[in-house]
Specification:
Structural class: mainly beta
Oligomer: single chain
Strand content: over 45%
Number of strands: 42
Largest sheet: 23 strands, antiparallel
Helix content: under 10%
C-alpha cells in the first residue's frame, strides 16, 4: 500500500503544480534483569539461530521480548523509532499504516534501502507496497535484531543501510501457556489479542490472533486489521521440522495531506488539521504465507532449508479531483533457501563457515481502471515475472583470543520480464497507452569484511567495510515517458560502499558504544518526475556519513539509556531535473533526513509488580520530499515526543495505561513540496492519545 500512497504523493505533487530497555521478568529484581548484550540472548545474525557472541565483528542491536513489553510503543515501527539512527516516516499514526523505516539517512527511499525480514525471510517485495506492519503485531514478536551497515552478503539486494530481522514467538519453553488481552483508547481504538503455546512431548504449537479497529486521528482514516498466525514444530534429537502459516487483512481509509499555500491564503494544517480533502480514497490488503523449515544436525555441521510461499492481494482507489484511479494488484512469491553452517578449525583456531543458496520466483499482476465496478475490463493489465538466484559464503575466524575476523561474498542474478495489455475500449481508456514488452537480466555482487579486537575485558573496537546493491522494483520500472506514454524504464542497479568504525564498553548490564560510518552510493534509484516524465531514474553519487552514540545503565530499581545520531546525507555532484531545467545539487542535503536524532528512556520499578517507563524522541528539521534543490524555504519542523507507560501485575492479571505524545505536541514527519509554487502537503500525526490495557496469563 505504500506504493499507492507513494504514487498518490507523486500525482499530488503534480496537482500542486497546477534504545534498549532492561526489564525484569516477573518475580525478579532489577539486578536480575535480562540484558540484551549478554551471551544469554539468542540471535540469527548468521542466518542460524545461536547464542549471541558479543565478540562477533558486527554492529548488532537486539530488542528482547521483555524490552518490547516494557516499552510504550504500540507497533514495531514505534519500537524501532527508539533505536539509534532509525527514523520512521509515518503518514497517519494509525497502527503503522504507511510507515517507512529509514536507517542511516536514505529519506523517502529508506524502505527500499533497509531490508525488513520476518524470521529471516524478506517481506520487502518487488513492488513499492512496503511492509504491512499491522501483520506483525507486537504480541507475536519474540525479539527484533538490527544489523547496521551490512547484510547484503547474507540476504541480498536492499540491505544497503542494514537489516531489521523480526523474530516471532515460537512454541518453546517448559510448559504450555497463554495470554489474552485487550486495549481501548483514543479515537475509539479497540484491540484484542491471543497468544498461546501448547506443548506435548517433542511437539509444540504457537497460536497468535490479533484484531484492531480505530477511527484514526484524521477524518477518513478508519482502519481495521486482523491477523492469524500458527507455528507448529517437532523437535528431534538431530532433526527439527516446523510449519508456519498465517493470514492477515487490512481495510484503511486514506485522508491524504493537508495543503499549505501561503501565497493563496491556504493553510489547512492550521485551519482543519484533522480534516481530509480525499474522503473517497481507500485501500485494502489481504495476505497469506506458509513456510516449511527443516533443521538437521549432521557430522559435517548444521543444515537448514526453508520452502515458502507468500502472496498478497491489494486494492486502492484515489479520486484525484474527478480523475479516479482504481487498482488491483496480486503478488505471489515462492522461495527456497538452503544453507549449511560448518564449524571447522583453521590453522588451529576456531572457524565457522556458512554456505547458502537463495531462490526467489515472483509473479506480479496489476489491473488499472477508473472505478471498482469496471475492473473486470481494465484499461491496463501489467504482468511481470522476476527470478532471483544467489549463492553466498560467510566465514568467521577467531584469529586470537581477542580478535575475530569475518568475511563474506555474494553473487546474485535477476531476470525480469514484463508485459502491458492496453484496452482502449475499456471505460476510461480512450486516452491511455500501452508499454512495449520489456525484459532485463542483471548480475551484482556484495562482500563484507569485519574485524573485532578486544582491548581489555570490557573495551573493544570494531571495523567493517562492504559493498551492497539494490535492484529497482516493478513499480519503479512501470512509468510514463516525457510524452506521458506508458513504458518500462529499466534502471541500472544501485551500488554502495560502506565503512563502519566503532568502540564499545560492556560491563555487567551496562553499555557505552560509539560508531562512525560512511556510505557512498552510486546510481541511487529515486523519483525524478521531469527527466523521464513521472518516473524514476538513477541519481548522481551521494554520501551518507555520521556518528552514533549509545548508552545503557542499570541500577537496582532504575534503568536509564540514551542515544544520539548525527547523520549527514548529501549529493556529491550532478543535477536534478526541475520545471525550469536541471538544477545543480552538488553538496545539497538529501530530503527527509534529520541531521540530529536523540532518544532517551527511563524505567523505574516502582514495586515488585509495577513499573513506569518514559521514552523521549527528538528529530531535527528536515527538507521536504521533492526538495532536492534545497531551495523551497520551508522545512519539516523539528519535533519531540514523550511517551509514558505504567503497568501493574495483580495475580495473573496485568493492567496498565499508555500515554503517547504526553505533552500534546502538534507535529508531522512527512511533507512533499511543489516545484513551481510555495505550496506543500503535510501529513499531521496524532496529538496526545491514551490507551488502557488488560491482559490475563494462563500458565507460566
Amino acid at each position: 500500500m505504500a506504493s499507492v500512497c507513494r504514487r498518490a504523493g507523486i500525482i499530488g505533487t503534480v496537482l500542486l503544480m497546477a534504545p534498549a530497555f532492561a526489564f525484569a521478568e516477573d518475580g525478579k529484581d532489577a539486578d536480575d534483569a535480562i540484558d540484551v548484550r549478554t551471551d544469554e540472548v539468542v540471535v540469527t545474525a548468521t542466518r542460524f539461530t545461536e547464542e549471541l557472541d558479543v565478540k562477533r565483528p558486527v554492529n548488532l542491536t537486539v530488542i528482547t521480548r521483555q524490552e518490547i513489553e516494557a516499552s510504550p510503543a504500540r507497533t514495531v515501527p514505534e519500537v524501532l523509532a527508539g533505536q539509534v539512527g532509525v527514523v520512521p516516516s509515518d503518514l497517519f499514526g494509525n497502527n503503522g499504516t504507511n510507515t517507512i523505516i529509514d536507517l542511516r539517512g536514505f529519506g523517502v527511499t529508506g524502505g527500499q534501502n533497509t531490508l525488513i525480514l520476518v524470521n529471516g525471510r524478506r517481506v520487502s517485495d518487488i513492488d513499492l507496497s512496503g511492509v504491512k506492519w499491522s501483520s506483525i503485531p507486537l504480541s507475536s514478536v519474540e525479539r527484533i535484531e538490527i544489523v547496521r551497515g551490512t547484510g547484503s552478503v547474507l540476504y541480498g539486494d536492499g540491505a544497503v543501510a542494514g537489516v531489521v530481522n523480526i523474530i516471532t514467538r515460537s512454541p518453546s519453553g517448559e510448559s504450555s501457556r497463554a495470554t489474552v488481552g485487550a486495549r481501548y483508547g483514543s479515537f475509539d481504538t479497540r484491540e484484542a489479542k491471543i497468544d498461546a503455546t501448547l506443548l506435548k512431548d517433542q511437539y509444540g504449537l504457537n497460536i497468535n490472533a490479533y484484531t484492531y479497529s480505530s477511527d484514526g486521528y484524521r477524518d477518513n482514516n478508519e482502519t481495521d486489521d486482523s491477523v492469524l498466525k500458527l507455528d507448529l514444530r517437532r523437535a528431534g534429537i538431530s532433526n527439527d521440522v516446523s510449519l508456519r502459516i498465517g493470514a492477515d487483512r487490512q481495510d484503511v481509509r486514506l485522508p491524504g495531506g493537508r495543503r499549505v499555500e501561503p501565497s493563496a491564503g491556504i493553510n489547512e494544517l492550521e485551519d482543519d488539521r484533522r480534516g481530509t480533502s480525499t474522503p473517497l480514497d481507500f485501500a485494502t490488503r489481504d495476505g497469506g504465507y506458509a513456510t516449511l523449515a527443516l533443521s538437521s544436525r549432521q557430522d559435517i555441521g548444521l543444515i537448514d532449508a526453508e520452502l515458502g510461499y507468500r502472496d498478497k492481494a491489494q486494492t486502492s482507489y484515489f479520486y484525484f479531483g474527478g480523475f479516479p484511479d482504481y487498482r488491483e494488484t496480486d503478488l505471489g512469491v515462492w522461495s527456497l533457501t538452503p544453507r549449511m553452517k560448518i564449524p571447522a578449525d583453521l590453522f588451529g583456531r576456531q572457524n565457522q563457515l556458512v554456505i547458502g543458496l537463495d531462490f526467489y520466483s515472483w509473479d506480479y499482476q496489476l489491473d488499472v481502471s477508473n472505478d471498482p465496478a469496471n475492473i473486470g475490463t481494465p484499461i491496463n493489465r501489467v504482468r511481470a515475472t522476476q527470478r532471483d538466484y544467489a549463492y553466498y559464503l560467510h566465514d568467521i575466524l577467531t584469529l586470537t583470543d581477542t580478535m575475530q575476523l569475518s568475511l563474506g561474498w555474494r553473487e546474485q542474478w535477476q531476470e525480469i520480464e514484463a508485459t502491458d495489455d492496453y484496452d482502449p475500449t475499456a471505460p476510461g481508456g480512450a486516452f491511455g497507452s500501452e508499454a512495449p514488452d520489456g525484459e532485463q537480466d542483471l548480475r551484482e555482487h556484495a562482500y563484507d569484511l569485519g574485524l573485532r579486537y578486544e582491548l581489555t575485558t570490557s573495551w573493544s573496537v570494531l571495523a567493517s567495510t562492504g559493498r551492497s546493491f539494490r535492484f529497482a522494483t516493478i513499480d519503479e520500472i512501470y512509468e510514463f515517458s516525457p510524452t506521458f506514454q506508458r513504458e518500462f524504464q529499466f534502471l541500472r542497479p544501485q551500488t554502495a560502499q560502506n565503512i563502519d568504525i566503532g568502540v564499545e564498553r560492556r560491563w555487567n548490564a551496562q553499555l557505552l558504544r560509539a560508531t562512525v560510518f560512511q556510505i557512498d552510493v552510486e546510481d541511487e534509484i529515486h523519483l525524478d518526475p521531469y527527466s523521464t516524465g513521472i518516473g524514476n531514474t538513477n541519481l548522481p553519487p551521494s554520501r551518507r556519513r555520521g556518528v552514533e552514540l549509545e548508552s545503557a545503565l542499570s541500577f537496582k530499581e532504575v534503568n536509564l539509556g540514551a542515544s544520539y545520531a548525527y547523520t549527514e546525507a548529501k549529493f556529491l555532484e550532478g543535477t536534478f531535473s526541475s520545471v525550469g531545467g536541471p538544477v545543480d545539487i552538488s553538496g545539497n542535503t538529501v530530503p527527509l533526513v534529520p541531521r540530529h536524532k536523540v532518544t532517551a528512556y527511563a524505567r523505574w520499578l516502582t514495586s515488585e509488580k509495577s513499573f513506569l517507563t518514559m521514552t523521549f524522541r527528538y528529530a531535527s528539521e528536515q527538507f521536504m520530499d521533492n526538495d532536492e534543490a534545497n531551495d523551497f524555504g520551508t522545512k519539516i519542523p523539528a519535533y519531540s515526543v514523550f511517551d509514558l507507560k505504567y503497568s501493574h501485575d495483580i495475580a495473573n492479571w496485568r493492567l496498565g495505561l499508555v500515554v503517547n505524545n504526553l505533552f500534546d505536541k502538534q507535529y508531522y514527519a512527512y511533507a512533499v513540496r511543489s516545484l513551481i509554487t510555495d505550496a506543500y502537503n503535510a501529513y499531521p500525526l496524532p496529538e496526545r492519545t491514551v490507551t488502557a490495557f488488560a491482559e490475563y496469563r494462563f500458565g507460566r
